């Protein structure tokens, strides 16, 4: 059973002071938010010892010194990728052969006491100095945009969905000997067991067309998608002069596609948004893909054909309220990027 936290010296003094003033045990406990039994024990101990000091406590002495605790903390902060075992080896290497060597578990405890907990590292695209500057410029240009302006943007992107594939870490609780139990495993197959590549878009509170990409998508295929799906969806969802967003994939910025979009822009059909490189975290459609993947996986696709059917069905169930929440968070995204000076930022909640 866990040991109760002892009262502070200040509370012990307050208990004795109030008791000397004639207050009851129950009233003292209520005033100081202490249990009556704790008040009674404090009064009894004071009568026996006449002191408010802590009693000598039994137990195993702390293995590490204050200096070693600081060394463990600073070593981890200098290199966040060091394991507890590596830090342990560094601490033990600084000690003499006659000293007691510390264990990996001790290092873990000291790190947790310092607020340094082991976590799975987030995966983000590499941002070079030039990328950060362009992201910062984009955020500053759009930080004052109104909700209506954000709603006039057509957000577009491609994404691949697999039947079994998943890059997410899955945690399970198991007993000894259950590591290879089927209920504690995540089954995998080569190439994800079959997948479907799609291109989708949304604007405001409505999703556009979801197009299935067959084979490898090149500039000619993307040009066809722009003509038959992306632009018609935009005109249907927003109307003329909508703002078209796309990333800097080579097929998107090819001479063929760029010329087509520039012609449409000169005709007043659309306006192109200048998009910073290496910035999928700025595009709200990435969160839509995550939501779509969760809904599809919950239905258990069994084949590539079945997966495509589920993708189409679940795509239509993405609610307008959810999409609007993604749009409304964009000003907070811009502020977060500016605060991070164009670098990585903590995702604002929707």
Report on the architecture of this protein.
The chain has 350 residues and is of the alpha/beta class. It has two domains: 66-113; 129-339, 2-Layer Sandwich (Nucleotidyltransferase, domain 5). It contains 14 helices and six strands. Strands 1, 2, 3, 4, 5 and 6 form a six-stranded mixed sheet that branches. Helix 7 packs across helix 14 (330-339). It is elongated and about 95 Å long. Residues 47-56 have a biased composition (Basic and acidic residues).
The shape, in one word, is elongated
Mean pLDDT: 89
β content, as a range? 5-15%
CATH C-level class of the largest domain is Alpha Beta
Number of strands: 6
Which topology of the largest domain does CATH recognise? Nucleotidyltransferase, domain 5
| Helix content class | 40-55%
InterPro entries: Homeodomain-like_sf, IS30-like_HTH, Paired_dom, RNaseH_sf, Tc1-like_DDE_dom, Transposase_5, Transposase_Tc1-like, WH-like_DNA-bd_sf
Protein name: Paired domain-containing protein
Organism: Mastacembelus armatus
Biased composition (Basic and acidic residues): 47-56
